Fold this protein.
Amino acid sequence: MPDAFLNYIDGKWVPAANGETYLDTNPARPGEVIGEFQRSGPEDVDAAVSAASQAQDEWRHTPAPLRGEIIARATRMLVERKPELAETITKEMGKVLVDSGYDVQGAITSGEYMSGEGRRMFGDTVPSGLPNRLAMTVRGPVGVVGIITPWNLPMLMPAWKLFPALVCGNTVVVKPAEDTPLSAVRLFEVLEEAGVPPGVANLITGFGPEAGQPLTTHPDVDMISFTGSRAVGKQIATLAGAELKHVSLEMGGKNALVVLDDADLGEAVTGALWGGFSTTGQRCTASSRLVVDSRVANEVVERLVDGMSSLVVGDGLDPETKVGPLINAKQLERVHSYTGIGVEEGADLVVGGEKLDESFGGHFYAPTLFDHATADMRIAQEEIFGPTITVIRVDGDEEAISVANGTRYGLSAAVYTRDTARALRAVSELEAGLVYLNAPTIGSEIHLPFGGVKDTGNGHRESGTAAIEQFTEIKTVFLDFSGTLQRAHIDEPTSPD
Ligand code: NAD
């Protein structure tokens, strides 16, 4: 019998009201069951939202430094449990241990940063246009926040939304991805032990349409913070937007790593291999397009082929492995279908393009390289979310930037060059929320804003103080001690003629 895991609602571990469960399996060995999880539905959403609503008043009146202290306690527990948690992530999600360690460390760093925000959460003090009057802003919570997360960063994603939401005084209901519920359960065990009061943080596992959608539309949810695909994000924006909820969306990417003709090619290729194939390419910021000046393209492709020959595919728990499995059978088929699309479109399949599920026994796919793609091909436009890199050859910096910008997404971009002026021009022109110079498109840090432009997001940023903006409402306060009625913009002194 597999281990059974429950929802966490109002400080108690409880089964789904409908009694339904589902099995979570290891993508490297799909026969191995990670656990049995609750297949939650609208009744569980109701119970969790009701608990979060009831806990709201007390939590928002708990001083922010105290809220921060509880987060600090949880963070210290994550530090102690880091190796075990990383192993859990690798088993349920497939990525190699070093990537899973990053996932836990990201949650830890977010906790460290956000616990300190409990003693900052700054507002502004601003001069008033009237005498004997103070003007300032103070921050309060948004209310009940529904958090919906993807499977590729199964601990970091819930944590980097939860910690800022909680420190700002919100109460939350988290619906993690159906493929990675155990990482979220482990995070909630830590929150419980750290003393997060009942109802303040609630967890419901299950599927998007059954549990995520009722959370999105629930009348007592004030905000939805979502990370996932563009298609689901659009649906959430439509449903939650119609109810005038706050909606923060982080969606897909088709990130370009640009190699100009003066770049250090060794550095660029090392960056491309890491950016394109770590986490088996299943990163929203993955370097999935290489936009390469044609003067250096042959050499770049040769070096890439050479580098790819040492990408050991296998179980993420094996220290030799560089590329783990894809998350599930559906994703394996999807990635493989894009290989077919690329070939049909006329791009050159240089390396890979094969499913390895039968030989490796899990959802494995060979690291794949396309060359001579054109910028408008589907493999150069659509998010594949797998170990596939597409090289697009260009002539000169202007075309490189134009191709890099030529998708609907705008999450991350990178440029490799040794020339400062060319670098700064590229940094200025690239349409992306994150831009890297001489580094691949992955590698953001927790204390800096994270997010994208165009169809990647809807104007919000996560992480760092940007997250505090997202999870607070600002109250503008005027304190008048003049003892008389003062009329703003009427009695205010005006500028001399
Ligand atoms: P997904 O959109 O399929 O699922 C994300 C979450 O939404 C899951 O929890 C899922 O159960 C839920 N969901 C699905 N349908 C829903 C519905 N109708 N209503 C409410 N919730 C619903 O995405 P995924 O496959 O889990 O993750 C991969 C995607 O996430 C990629 O597009 C990737 O680029 C993106 N991503 C973006 C970022 C970022 O910060 N921009 C980070 C990580 C992943």
The longest helix spans residues 64-93. The domain at 7-251+457-477 is CATH 3.40.605.10 (Aldehyde Dehydrogenase; Chain A, domain 1). The pocket of nicotinamide-adenine-dinucleotide is lined by residues 148-153, 175, 177-178, 207-209, 212-213, 216, 227-229, 232, 235-236, 250-253, 284, 383, 385, 411, 452, 456 (CB under 6 Å). The longest strand covers residues 29-38.
